[in-house]
Amino acid sequence: MAIDVTYTQARANLAKLWDEALSNREPIIIHRRGKEDMAMIPADELAGLMETAHLLRSPRNAERLLVALARSRQGEGQPQSLDDLKESIGFGEK
After folding, report:
1. Is the pTM here over 0.90, yes or no?
2. Which of 6, 9, 75, 88 has the fewest CB atoms lying closer than 10 Å?
3. Phi, psi of 79 (to 5 degrees)
4. How many domains does the chain have?
């Protein structure tokens, strides 16, 4: 659940809000009178969201990812080591 604060509260408690955003991974929504709201989230969370949006932008890729997710949730497939995966796609050392 996002945490809502005013601009004044955010300025007065920036370090505390920063730590809270990092520890609970929830966005902090900052409201400023007469301006658009802003969100404060950890940079790695933003990077993950941007990566996900990029991967889902292509309908074909989105379908492949959603099918893989559904298969994973049904218990299909087995985890592989990185070396096994490389070998299975032809990148393993011979």
Report:
1. no
2. 75
3. -60, 145
4. 2
Q: Are residues 53 and 32 in the same domain?
A: no
The answer to whether residues 37 and 48 belong to one domain is no
Q: What is the 3-state secondary structure (H, E, C) of 23-74?
A: HHCCCEEEECCCCCCEEECCHHHHHHHHHHHHHHHCHHHHHHHHHHHHHHHC
Q: For the chain, how big is the Rg over CA atoms in Å?
A: 20
Q: At what angle do helices 43-57 and 59-73 cross, to 10 degrees?
A: 110
pLDDT tens digit sequence for 17-53:
999 999 999 999 999 999 999 999 999 999 999 999 9
Q: If we measure between CA atoms, which residue out of 2, 9, 5 comes closest to residue 27?
A: 2
Q: Which residues contact 4 (CB under 8 A, 6 or more apart)?
A: 29, 31
